[in-house]
From TrEMBL:
Lineage: Bacteria, Pseudomonadati, Planctomycetota, Planctomycetia, Pirellulales
Gene transcribed to yield this protein: galM
UniProt entry tagged with the keyword 4Fe-4S: no
CDD domains reported in the protein's UniProt record: galactose_mutarotase_like
Active site (catalytic residues): H210, E349
Gene3D superfamilies membership: 2.70.98.10
Keyword presence, Endoplasmic reticulum: no
Location within or outside the cell: Cytoplasm
GO BP: any one term: galactose catabolic process via UDP-galactose, Leloir pathway
Record-stated family: Belongs to the aldose epimerase family.
GO molecular function annotation: aldose 1-epimerase activity; carbohydrate binding
Keywords for the protein's UniProt record, in alphabetical order: Carbohydrate metabolism, Cytoplasm, Isomerase, Phosphoprotein, Signal
UniProt-recorded name of the protein: Aldose 1-epimerase
């Protein structure tokens, strides 16, 4: 079943309100004339619902292609929302610290060192919006624009296709990049996310989904008791600004060994330089390709003991960023009215490695004219 609406009649966002917000400078990253955000676009914001036969559902808004909620059953069949987020567009726009709840991030998800890369003999400068580095596409990345949304079908099942044209020079990137993200929600409680893109100039592309999960239910305490398995025997260690050093380091004998499931909180407080740099886990893991389902690799499995909810991730991407909510501190209050406490949610972002445009030994993240960016990630929810 497919429904388009916005909760409590909030399906339309007031463009004048947003323009006033810009003038007042209320955003953490002030928007300049160069950023070309068109306030009239905000008249077209909608919330879409994909619901399956069991009543489990996903809600998505075309602002930032954000997944606002994922409602799935626990072991007793009780439905609960496991995605952190808000119930109004204003809250997403005006959130302190800009956590990227539920958004599609790009044109390049994760970090690019010093906001700079060279390609085909030309050096490109990007916004440095995360310390000295570029993060998640810049000041106005794909998470802060209004996408075109079109109800569609995949294999005869309802789906939602989001499209966006990132223009040549937008946020400093080369090339007109035509992007499509298709969300499909199945009767098996699988959220299938397909990313597609083409370009007219060579450009870095690395799209990912940035939902924060708490399988006990959003706002229900920390995720430290969640048991996590990552199908990765290596990770990419980082410097103090969270840029990969270029090394692929074995996880064996380190707090980063999740090859066998363990509680997220078991080792997060260990004395370890990498954990100190990330203030916890905020690292890219190099996926092993030994466990595959068709063209997709098993990336992660998470189990929450009190509810029995399980989430399994398969992807065609080579890496996955595990982030355990280190910067959540209780200031953000979600849709249930509960504060999102420190480590109250985790992200598992399938991706190419951070800073790949500057690291020749990493898998290339450059999309060329005539080629197609086409990658899929599946989030499968169940309970036991």
């Amino acid at each position: 079943m497919f429904v388009a609406s916005w909760r409590d009649g909030m399906n339309r966002f007031n463009a004048k309100w947003f323009a006033g917000l810009l003038m007042l400078g209320c955003l953490a990253n002030p928007i300049t004339a160069q950023d070309q955000m068109q306030v009239e676009d905000f008249d077209s914001i909608e919330l879409y619902t994909l619901e399956n036969q069991s009543g489990a559902k996903v809600q998505i808004t075309n602002f930032g292609a954000i997944v606002t909620s994922i409602v799935v059953p626990d072991r007793d069949g009780k439905l609960g929302d496991v995605a952190l987020g808000y119930d109004s567009v204003e809250s997403y726009i005006n959130a302190v610290d800009k956590p990227y709840f539920g958004a599609i991030v790009g044109r390049y998800g994760n970090r690019i060192a010093n906001g700079e890369f060279s390609l085909n003999g030309e050096t490109y400068s990007l916004a440095t919006n995360n310390g000295p580095n570029h993060l998640h596409g810049g000041v106005i990345g794909f998470d802060k624009v209004v996408w075109d949304a079109e109800p569609t079908a995949v294999n005869g099942k309802p789906a939602l296709k989001m499209t966006y044209l990132a223009k040549d020079g937008e946020e400093g990137y080369p090339g007109n990049l035509q992007v499509a993200v298709t969300y499909q929600w199945t009767d098996e409680n699988k959220l299938i996310v397909r990313y597609e893109a083409t370009t007219d100039k060579a450009t870095p592309v690395n799209l990912t989904q940035h939902t924060y999960f708490n399988l006990a239910g959003e706002g229900n305490g920390t995720i430290l008791d969640h048991e996590l398995m990552l199908n990765a025997s290596k990770f990419t260690p980082v410097d103090s600004t969270l840029i990969p050093t270029g090394e692929l380091r074995n996880v064996e004998g380190t707090p980063f060994d999740f090859r066998k499931a363990k509680a997220i909180g078991r080792d997060v407080g260990m004395e370890n330089e990498q954990l100190e740099f990330g203030l916890g886990y905020d690292h890219n893991f190099v996926l092993d390709s030994s466990d595959k389902e068709g063209d997709l690799t098993l990336a992660a499995r998470v189990f929450e003991p009190t509810t029995g909810r399980t989430m399994e991730i398969h992807t065609s991407e080579p890496g996955i960023q595990f982030y355990c909510g280190n910067f959540l501190d209780g200031r953000l209050v979600g849709k249930s009215g509960k504060s999102y406490v420190h480590r109250g949610g985790f992200c598992l972002e399938t991706q190419h490695y951070p800073d790949s445009p500057n690291q020749s030994t990493f898998p290339s993240a450059i999309l060329k004219p005539g080629d197609k960016y086409d990658t899929t990630t599946v989030f499968h929810f169940s309970a036991k």
